[in-house]
Amino acid sequence: MQATAPAEAVSTVSLYALVVGVAKFKDPAVNHLEWAAKDARDFAAALKRPSRLYRKVEVKLLTDEDADSGSILDGLTWLKRQVGQGDVGVVFLAGHGVSAPNSCHAGNAAGISFRGAQDYNRLINEIAGSANAVVLASSTGAELSMESDDWQQGAFTKALLEGLAGAADYTKDGVVTIDELNLYVKERVKELTGGLQHPVDLKPKEARNIAFAMVP
Fold first, then answer.
1. Is residue 169 part of a domain?
2. How do residues 134-168 score in pLDDT, each as one tens digit?
3. Which residues neighbour 70 within 8 Å (Cβ) at sequence distance 6 or greater?
4. DSSP 8-state assignment for residue 37
5. How many domains does the chain have?
6. Contacts of 117 (CB under 8 A, 6+ apart)
7. Helix extents (H) in the chain
8. Distance separating alpha carbons of residues 131 and 207, to the nearest angstrom
9. Which of 53, 73, 84, 106 is 20 to 30 A off residue 114, Cα-Cα?
């Protein structure tokens, strides 16, 4: 997930998001996931909740057969064009990080098996540019990202949505910041998975701790 707004400007900026979830794959060698597409739909719905933090919110949602390589690249191009100075841009990807039987290694998402993957990575780097870019992956590259029929979600998405709904508001000020969200998601995913899954984040030293969501 990427955020590109300084904290003092959040109340007047817009949020743009590309949200992708793929549970069903054309390649029979890649096992299907149960809840990745629902993860994307649930996250998109959470972003669309009314919030005084943003002047407007625009979400492009791609799931399953609509989330082919061309559509994702088009979505990234759209995001790059829409996000202006001080705006917030979000990229959410739910699916297999690498094409391997019975595994989903989110920390290796740079190797995601879309055609044109090099262009895909290049566009993400261009979107980040010199902005305040924060990346939060659901697990390390050596771990599996877990989902459950009990939750009807992936552990990462469940924790993320809980955090956005207010569980990550550690300071009880009605606002969830990126740092608060990262901390909550890391601890909650470990709890949900019995310590088998550990989200990781990448955040430049100069990246600011922006207010990302208001508690409903």
1. yes
2. 878 888 767 778 888 899 999 999 999 999 999 99
3. 116
4. H
5. 1
6. 111
7. 36-47, 69-82, 117-128, 155-162, 178-192
8. 8
9. 84
Range of the domain at 21: 7-214
Please state, in angstroms and rounded to a whole number, the distance separating the CA atoms of residues 173 and 215.
9
Rounded Cα gap, residues 139 and 109, in angstroms: 10
Say if 2 falls within a structural domain.
no
Write the CATH number for 75.
3.40.50.1460
Contact 21, 40 (CB under 8 A): yes
pTM of the model: 0.79
205's CB contacts (< 8 A; 6+ apart) are: none
How far is 180 from 182, CA to CA, in rounded Å?
A: 6
**CB of 59 closer than 8 Å to CB of 4:** no
pLDDT for the residue 147:
86
- For residues 123-141, one letter each, b for 16 or more C-beta atoms within 10 angstroms of the residue's C-beta and e for the rest, the string is bbeebbeebbbbbbbbbbe
CB 86 within 8 A of CB 6: yes
Q: Which two tokens stand for residue 149?
A: 């029929």
Q: What is the pLDDT of residues 18-70, one digit of tens each?
A: 999 988 877 766 667 788 899 999 999 999 998 889 999 999 999 988 988 89
